[in-house]
Amino acid sequence: GGDMTDNGSNSQWDGWFDDWQYTIGSDGRMIPIVAARGNHEGSNSDLVNLFDVPSSSVYYAITFGGSLVRTYTLNTEISISGSQTSWLSSDLQNNNSSVTWKMAQYHKPMRPHVGSKSEGNNQYNNWANLFYNYGVKLVVECDAHTVKSTWPIRPSTGSGSDEGFVRDDANGTVYVGEGCWGAPLRSNNDGKNWTRNSGSFNQIKWIFVDQNSIETRTLRTDNASSVGTVNDNNIFQAPSNLDIWNPSNGSVITIGQSAPPPPVECYSTSGAVSGNNYSESFESGLGAWKQSSCDDIDWTRDASGTPSSGTGPTSGSAGSWYMYMESSAPNYPSKDANLYATVDLSGESSATLEFDYHYQGSSASTMVLQASTNGGSSFSTLWTMPTSSNSSWRSASVSLDSYAGGDVILQFAATTGASWQGDVAIDDLSITTSGGGGGGGGTTEDCGSASNLSRSTGPWQYFTWTVPSNSQGTTITTTGSNGDADLYVRWGANPTTSNYTARSISATSNESISITGSGTLNIGIYAYSTFSGLSVQACNTVPATASTAQDAPELSISGEVVETVGFQVFPNPASDRLSVATAFDLNTDAPARVYTITGQVALETETANLREGIDIAGLQKGVYFIQVQDAKGQVRTQQFVKN
Question: Distance of CA 448 to CAs 109, 425, 482, 511, Å?
Fold first, then answer.
């Protein structure tokens, strides 16, 4: 579980290995070590050099007993998202049916049972669903210097949940541990409604695994003058004088095999509602709308304003009630919430859906309206919500003419952004139909965006945006940054400070340009002074019956000018590991980030880890940008190619 020494000095490691020799039995055999990194191990290289772990990033899997149990050792001291979670997901899929049991260990717990410890939201957001979906039955966590065991639990924010988990005796995962076999103890003062037992004493776990079950026991340490040894003739017999903790719910946690879960029905096509002059404002419930069974979180019906300030509506747009997606922890980042209804448009030749939507916040949550004619097996996107923040309700009108004459599943698919400030809501839905042709009026917005842009003074970043001939106008906005980023546009070529079609150059980074015309619009962001966290969005206003103007929701980066003096990455191109060298001091409190060419964060790591290089094996082939911050707070950027 990590934290084997206090500061990793040579003398402390010498003492640790001297003590470990006491585990050598009379027959010369020694208890093997499956090492994980804790926050008191200064770097991954400590474990690589001392324990010869099979991964330089200190996350790996080992199978014991032929195909009996596959153990996953994860690393909470490096970036959790990105390569590590991609590897975990792939390995779990590849070994889903080839081993009997799966277990995991890592240092920092998802939900510590010590009140002063921070919640492990990154672990929860990236790993909890993987553990549950792929049958990881036992997880050992450390770090908090206390003792805990849970009932079998699964990720959920529904009724009866506590801190993102709910008890599930049939298929859940048991979490045990929280470390401490010699460090100062902490109080077990943060229990949950799914906690089995907790305490505060020095402990280790004793785990039995066979084909039928896993048993785990908690052993008290430092409380007996002598203890017997395990007998090779019966390795499951407890040695004499061994103190096995016996709390209120018993000394042994037994985990049995789960029955295969029934197939999940993501969408039910029963109860189709007639689309003929249909309306719904959620004043009396959800009506024909249902929660999908194959997403991460549910939509919420509300009338009194969402709980978080600065995001979400304060009341409905038609009456009091509305439906919204709550973005507060543990619902971010990248949690999906799908609300759907089956609509009967048989006998109709045209139909139009109109609705109100609300998005206020800075976390870049998304929402699309989708349609399916094959029971939810696949969906087509009919409308994409503009990502510009607004405290007022807005309206949209979308043609359903392509689905007239039959049944169609309509789905509002929303995804949370990077923080709690990203609630989205819908209200006042209506469908107008016609049996004699025509139909579809109004306009809608086709939008693209890029986010998390950062630049130091001087460089440009360029994007291209396609404006169709039927566009009634295009609006380009920049929001959300500290610093000063100026906005320029030019038809057919990259703008400069002296050659542009239009510009917006206020003393902030909140810029806006409205322009008419069609063709390729080049967008330039000029760093008048250092900025970070910038989002840029372009929206075409087109007839509601028109197809989406863009192939993807992101703006296309066409090029940029970056500062590279004193900042090198090698090899370039690189395939597995990228080394970094700088001629300037780094700000070790700011993370190093790798961005895709569309401005999305692909990897994040602590700056202190750069001396070991960055594991990029999990990235797709293409062009990326790595950003660091120097000791003066200036953002430095370098480009590399992943092959």
Answer: 38, 20, 22, 16
Task: Pull the structure tokens for residue 314.
Answer: 């304060």
Secondary structure element (H or E) that encloses residue 94, with its range? helix 83-94
Secondary structure (3-state) at 34: coil
Helices and strands in the chain: count of H runs, count of E runs? 5, 40
Q: What residue ranges in 241-365 does DSSP mark as E strands? A: 253-256, 273-274, 278-280, 290-291, 300-302, 322-325, 336-344, 350-359
Residue 409 CA to residue 179 CA, distance in Å, equals: 49
Query: Are 476 and 485 in contact, with CB atoms under 8 Å apart?
Result: no
Considering only CA atoms, which of 525, 526, 520, 467 is closest in space to residue 491? 520
At residue 494, the pLDDT reads 81
Between 344 and 599, the more confident residue is 344
- All domains of the chain in start order, with CATH: 10-256 (3.60.21.10), 273-441 (2.60.120.200), 446-559 (2.60.120.380), 567-642 (2.60.40)
Residues 509 and 478: beta-carbon distance below 8 Å:
yes
What is the spatial distance between Cα 425 and Cα 359, in angstroms, rounded to a whole number?
A: 7
Triad 598, 600, 604: Cα angle to 5° = 140
What is the spatial distance between Cα 398 and Cα 261, in angstroms, rounded to a whole number?
Answer: 38
Please state the pTM of the whole predicted model: 0.47
The pLDDT assigned to 548 comes to: 41
Structure tokens at 402: 């392509």
Question: For the segment 478-507, what is each residue's pLDDT rounded down to a tens digit?
Answer: 887 778 888 989 988 888 877 888 888 877
- Strand residues in 244-393 grouped as ranges (E): 253-256, 273-274, 278-280, 290-291, 300-302, 322-325, 336-344, 350-359, 366-372, 380-384
Q: Reduced to 3 states, what is the DSSP secondary structure of residue 129?
A: helix
Q: Could you give the C-alpha distances from 37 to 110, 180, 615, in angstroms and in order?
A: 16, 14, 16
Across residues 175-191, what is the average pLDDT?
91
Q: Mean pLDDT throughout 222-226?
A: 80
* pLDDT range class, residue 613, cuts 50, 70, 90: confident
**Cα–Cα distance between 420 and 308 in angstroms, integer?**
8
488 DSSP β-pair partners: 503, 524
Q: Which helix (H) or strand (E) holds 49?
A: helix 44-51
Q: How far apart are the first and last CA of the chain?
A: 34
Query: How many other C-beta atoms lie within 10 A of the C-beta of residue 611?
Result: 12
Confidence of residue 263 (pLDDT cuts 50, 70, 90): low
Q: What is the pLDDT of residues 40-88, one digit of tens each?
A: 998 999 999 999 999 999 999 999 999 999 999 999 999 998 899 999 9
Question: Residue 483 corresponds to which tokens in the numbers above?
Answer: 């610093």
Higher pLDDT, 199 or 551: 199
Cα–Cα nearest to 603, from 581, 580, 624: 624
How far from the centroid of its chain's Cα atoms is residue 246's Cα? 38
Compute and round to an integer the Cα radius of gyration of the chain. 28
